[in-house]
Structure formats: structure tokens, C-alpha cells
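Data card: per-record layout.
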Amino acid sequence: PRRPHAPPKSHLAPYFVEYVISQLVHQFGAATAFGGGLRVYTTLDPRVQRDADRAATAILGRPGVPAVALVAIDPHTGQVKALVGGRNFARQQFDVAVDGRRQPGSAFKPFALATAIRQGMSPTSVFISEPKSIDLGGGSTWNVSTYSGGYAGKITLTDATVESDNTVYADLSMMVGPDNIAATAADMGITSPVGDNPSIALGGLTTGVSPLEMANAYATLADGGERLSGTMMADGEPAPISITRVTDARGRVLVRNTLVRSRALLPWQAGLETSILQQVIERGTGQAAAIGRPAAGKTGTTTDYADAWFCGYTPDLAAAVWVGYPDSQREMIVRGIRVAGGTFPAMIWSRFAADAL
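The structure for this 357-residue chain is written out next.
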């Protein structure tokens, strides 16, 4: 985790400012970053940032409730438009949006789905929804059940995605290969080392992922399968663009962060996946994320309700919302409701996206 040198003076987006500072230190060294008279031009949209802050506080703004992290990216440009890293920068400098590595739960299923589509599997393929005991070899067995405890019997891959059926996705993971799911996720913008556990299709990762990574990877779907990043690295990895250019005090350009496009999915593959993820909002687990216009996304909830996600997109905006406790992983119950991805995270996403668009 980065240790802030001093709380940023900006009250609008302190976590974003700290993220920018960390990139400047990496690029130029601390002495130049803090005392070199640099002029830094960033991608932040103040209006969109205020929409993000208001959505987070409107839905989960009371003391004692879980924190919210939110990252919004323009899928046309790969630029970060808003970043919320926690509730209060003065009290919590740790930026969950950038440095948090949390388990994504079923919000990781789109990477398994993309892998299946890459391999030529049809969304109308029929699976069996039932409790599973999968032999992993070496005397190890993987027992899988659904989140709701209900089972559909015969079900298509599309409907299993809409209902977020873990038992179908466990079978899918074994069919397409956990290593291939990890490779697809990396192609789409996940930079953390997620491993190749069989449970990767359900979000069971060796290392968790950040909201920044998730927003970037979902933006790949929003942009028709092209992953967008800048030429400036963040922690040695390609990253969405938060700095457009840096000049010296005289205005001479020192760094220009140029957009780089790399194709992760063919346009028809990304379009097919989008048509499925639209149904998650229209009739599935993400109905609370509806914004009155076409949008696609996926809910995610981890064991014991310790992390809850909603990641979604339209052609003009991709955003990831995480809800949890930054300092621990413990069950979340707010106003008598167990916090799953389809509850408060979806509501925050909906409020934010409707305003930002």
C-alpha cells in the first residue's frame, strides 16, 4: 500500500489526487514530483466525481456502515473520470479503489463467459443446475452450491449468467480451463496475479482485484472488446489513463500519456457478452442497477457477505462499485439487509450512472 506524503489539498477527489501523485513519484522521483514545478493535466471530470461522491453518500453515507469504492472510466478514451477510494480521506488514507485487493465473487464470471465465447461455446448451451461435487484429483473435492439455495435443473448458459448460478459456472470453469479464464481476464485489463484455481470462475482468486482493474476490464466490453490503457505505467503495469500530460513550469511537455489499444475480444464476441449482461439488469440479479436505458453489468458477493460488487457499463461509461470494510473482511448487514451485490452496490451504481450520463 502506498503511504501518502501529505493529505492532498484538493477536497474534490483526494484519493484520485493521491493516485496521480504516486504515479508522478514513480515517473520522476519524489524530489521532482513535489518540488519540480510540474504542471499535471488529469482526466478527472469534476461533475462526474461529484456524482460519484453523492451516489456513495446518498446510499451508504451514515457512520458505521461499510465503505464504498467507485471507479468510472470513459470506454472511448480509457480515461478515469471519477474515483472514490473510501469514505473519508482524513481518517482513511488507504485507497481501496486503487490499492485494495478484494475477492470479486460473481463479478468475475464475465471473464469465464468471455473465455467460453472465445472458445466457440454458444450462450444457448444447456447445463445442469444442481449441487456439485467436482473431483479435482489427488483426493480433493470441490463442493459447489448456489447463492440462493435453489436449483433450476436444465438451464442455458445465458440464464445461468442472469441468475448467477455457481454450479453451472463451476462446470464451465472445468470445461474452458481456469488458466484460460485467467488469461482472458489479463487480456481484458486485470493486472493482479489472480491464479488459476478452479474456483476462478466464481471469483475465487489467489490475489483479489481492485475496483480500478474491474472498471478497466468491464470498459473493454463497453468498447467492443478493445482494452484501453496509457503509455504511462502504474506499478509497472498498463493502466487506464488518469494523467494526460505533464509539463515543466515553462510549459514544455515532459510526458504525454498516449492511448494504447489492444484487442482482447472480437467485436461480435464482446457484443454477444454484452447482450447477456444486459439481461442481468433487465431480469436477473442486477435489477436494482436499472437506469431506464440499456446497460449491462454483473453483481458479485463473496462468502459471508464480506465484499459486495456491482460492475457495469453503457457505451459511454464503465464503472465498478465495491462495498465493504477496508480494514477487515466481515459480514455486512445494513438496515437489516445482508449486503449482496444486487443490493446497495447496484443501487449506488444506478444512482451514479443515471446522474453521470
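Known properties of this structure: The mean pLDDT is 94. Residues 267-283 form the longest helix (17 residues).

See the next section for split statistics.
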